[in-house]
Amino acid sequence: MARYSRGIWQAVWLTALVMWSFLLSSCDKDNNELIVYTSVDQHYSEPLFKAFEAATGINIRVVYDIEAAKTTGLANRLIAEAANPQADVFWSGETMQMHRLLQKNVLAPYRPPNLPANAHVFAGDYWIEFGGRARVLIVNTARLGNAVAPDSILDLASQTWPGNQIAIAYPMFGTTATHAAALTDIWGDAQALDYFSRLKQRGVRYVAGNSSVRDLVVSGQVLFGITDTDDACIAVARGHPVSVIFPDQQPNGLGAFVIPNGVALIAGGKNRQNAKTFINYLTGSEVMGLLAKAGWFYVDGQTVIANSTCGLPKMLKVMPHNISDAPETLAEFQRDLRALVVQ
Amino acid sequence: MSHLPPRNSPALSGLWQIRYAPAVVLWGVIALGPIVVLIYDLALSSFNATDLRIRVFSLRSTLLLLKSVMIAGSVSICAMVFAIALVRITREANFRFIRWLLWLSLALLLVPPYIHATAWITFVDKIVAGFGGVGLQFRGLSNVAGVIWIQIMAFFPLSLAFAIAAFRMTDQHQIDTARVFSPDWAVFRSIELPQILPAASIGAALVFILSITDFSVASLMLVEVYALEAFVEYSVASNSLSSFIIALPLLVIGVVIILIIIAPIKKLSISTIFSQPRPARLQRPRLSTLYILGLLACVFCALQFMVPIIMLTLDAFPAADILLIVGNNTEVIFNSVASATIAAAVSVLLALGLLPMLKTWRTLTLILIPLAVPASLIGIGMIRLWTLPGLDLVYNTAVMPVLAPIARLSSVAILALYIQSRRYDTMLTDVARQFRGNGPAVWFCVLLPLWLPGFAIGFFAVFGLALSELTTNLLVSAPGQQMLTVKTFSLLHYGASQQVAILCLLVLAMSMLSMGVVFFAAATMKKLSWS
């Protein structure tokens, strides 16, 4: 009985010790901290956060997003917290959600003092756009064989290839949503909606995210799909039998859609000065180079800046666009698109 | 059996009547609160019935739900069939290695499904590549079949635990007598099956619920399942109400299953798993279909154990990087272990407080309802609840990742303690109370030792499951409080790598350690003849 009692008490004290350590570590409010919400893949963003911490001594606490809800999930969380903001900075892998956040008064204006030439402020300094990834076609070369590879986003809707051999991420979140919004600017809402409707009618596979498109093509389940350069070039780097193509590069082609990253100050954030320090750091030339080297950024305007062996040309024709300044119209388009795709 | 009236301690009699209140209120707020607040929103909303019909009963949703039910049904049936076959051959044939296989497989009880998915995808891809299958991968060979196979592997230990409990409740002498006159299949159908059915049905039901509410495996295998719909809906629309509506079919299915298994739960006891001595065999094993199925189950069990361990270990090398990667993730590991420990401790204390309330099937059903609720709904409900005025101090703090597993998994601890509490002779406490009243001495010296197996199993089950909890942590993670499962799952979509393998091995090791402690505790208590 004594041995049993001793064992029980040992277990109780150990549990209490763990609880106490946890409470101490959680309650220890660090005044020199920063809270960042980011939809940039943790694999790319985490080393940057650690480097910033080492350089400045500012403790960064991060909320990451996951593949199934890219950027939209975080944007919704920021909107829900608007009355009592938890975050200080929002770093996004695309910029469409910035329009929505601006409309909901989540953002605060800030222009870094030494903004490089390749970073741009938007909407009255409410967010900064920098770097870029391109939307590309990824093709399984083992399955393609000697056939002519697709070279346009219009190939997803054409009859040349069976619909169930093509994949695209759901256009309700992430870069696919941004791409869809850009198409409304070029084609108009009706034609853009018609495009996605044809994809659905043809049985094109809508999947959870861009990495899922990559995985489907790599595994040979589909012949080709549309994804981002960071996802596609990983597959090439790993030696999978795929090729990556900038779409619509013909003289009369649309051009490839380039998606810059966005970073913004959150209105009412509790660590404003640290947030500005981080934004200055993030939009600096050094970070641009680091992210290009890591494979997150691929292009800067029309120039390829990544050092990858993705097989893409050094210059690309970029799709000109001006994503709508009318968030209500965009929101309505997104609702129609969602109803079309998920029902 | 007569119950002697306890001698009331004057100091405690006043408090005696309200002793249940704190546990009831706490559990009610933490575990039922998220669901109640969503139901409340639904009741107050002006939700359009047409919208409901379009979203929930659309062709796409209906087909997706049917597909998910088919997958979950296949997983639960196949896992239980293999488990029964394995346990049966363990009792038939006196091969020690089969018993070792059984315990090794049980050690993986708390390992999350996505770890099995990672290991199997790597394993099959290597084999296919080895046979020259360039460009082909596991996910390309068969999606739905792959999901079913991996989930069977993941939930097999749970089926095994209930199969063991089921066979412990059979009368071996009846079986041996019947085998004198009838072939094995007839004996199994007529004698064994009716006796093992209650426990086996509980195991199959729990596996069904876990399978239908899991989306991690399907996500990695690029298969759409209904469990992901509510999560995606919330992420897209940030509307807890529409997410609740979409998750309703899963909730209804889970509640119906809980109602079906309430009666068998009352018959089950944990102590029979460890304490009942194995009867002496009267007959030699016969080569029959069941025996061959049992041998196949052994192969299956060996694969179930070896593939995750071997594949993840191979991917984790070179060994020099292991310490580096573990060092880089110490904060994440600490967050996960600490949250799981606190959640398990609180769950066990809540179980202790709620135990006297579990007298009717209604209260037992209520306690088990959180198990039937999809994890995404628990997370969404928690966000809704803990952002209410007055409760919002908790939101976005380190407390949320602790509350999440309590909300979802405390029912496991309560169930474990409930089953254990029904096993002891109540005369023991009646006699003790004759001399020491209702004071703490009876609790510490009599009740606690008798309930200890239930405590231990409840604590470590919640600890291991909390360590592997993914969906609710995705939704309620606080800044800087990322959990190990979330980080691992996030990195998996980037692509399986050495870092993922090491993190998966960590989760696997901690889960196995939890089960190891349970086995050790059970063996110790058996040795001391306490259970």
Explain this structure to me?
The complex is a heterodimer of chains A (343) and B (531). The longest helix of chain A has 26 residues, at 2-27. Chain A is α/β, with parallel strands linked by helices. Chain A contains twelve helices and 13 strands. The termini of chain A are far apart. In chain A, the strands form two sheets. In chain A, strands 1, 2, 3, 4, 5, 6, 7, 8, 9, 10 and 11 form an eleven-stranded mixed sheet that branches. Chain A has helices at 2-27, 42-56, 72-80, 96-103, 141-144, 174-187, 189-202, 210-219, 229-237, 272-282, 285-294, 327-342, and strands spanning 33-38, 59-64, 89-92, 107-108, 120-122, 127-140, 166-169, 205-207, 224-228, 242-245, 258-266, 299-300, 303-304. With 531 residues, chain B is mainly α. Chain B has helices at 10-16, 21-44, 49-56, 59-92, 96-106, 113-130, 138-141, 143-168, 172-181, 184-212, 216-220, 227-237, 240-267, 271-275, 289-316, 320-328, 330-354, 361-372, 375-385, 400-421, 426-436, 440-468, 471-476, 484-494, 498-527. In chain B, 53% of the residues are buried. At the A-B interface, helix 1, strand 1, strand 2, helix 3 and helix 8 of A face helix 7, helix 12, helix 17, helix 22 and helix 24 of B.
Keywords:
heterodimer, A: 343 residues, alpha/beta, eleven-stranded mixed β-sheet, 12 helices, B: 531 residues, mainly alpha
